[in-house]
Design a protein that fits this description.
single chain; 3 helices; 142 residues; alpha+beta; globular; 25% helix
Length: 142
């Protein structure tokens, strides 16, 4: 992932509890970083995820996640997780994510998360909320 292809970044500092005995971030924590960054992306769009669930009876299921580890990051590193919406389908949304050391151009890890919108309790897909799609397209300029 190229830093210049991303508009939104969320900053985090790597905590001691997130590193393994080698002093680098344990691989499972990257998905937590991605989840936090996507949540902050939606917050920056002023999108009310809780209203989606409680008011519309819809939710997102993660159906795919990938992470490619390029360079290690360690305890106390200040990182920025970049988020951009990738493919916007009828009922699915693909997030493209990258981890960067603060202010540095090289990507230390990148990944992809695929969400499918579903009606609660049904287990079946549902079209993406138009309000969310409109906000993403306006922000991303697509």
């Amino acid at each position: 992932m190229d830093r210049n292809s991303v508009k939104f970044f969320h900053e985090l500092r790597v905590r001691y509890a997130e590193v393994d005995s080698q002093g680098i971030v344990f691989n499972a924590h990257y998905l937590t970083y991605f989840d936090v960054a996507v949540t902050e992306y939606l917050r920056s769009l002023e999108y009310d995820y809780h209203a989606l669930v409680s008011g519309q009876g819809l939710d997102f299921h993660m159906v795919k996640s990938t992470v490619e580890y390029l360079k290690p990051i360690g305890f106390d590193d200040l990182i920025e997780i970049g988020v951009r919406a990738g493919r916007i389908g009828r009922s699915s949304l693909t997030w493209a994510l990258g981890v960067f050391r603060k202010g540095r151009p090289e990507c230390t890890a990148w990944g992809e998360i695929v969400w499918v919108c579903t009606r609660l309790g049904s287990g079946t897909s549902h079209p993406l909320p138009e309000d969310l799609v409109r906000r993403i397209r306006a922000y991303e300029g697509v």
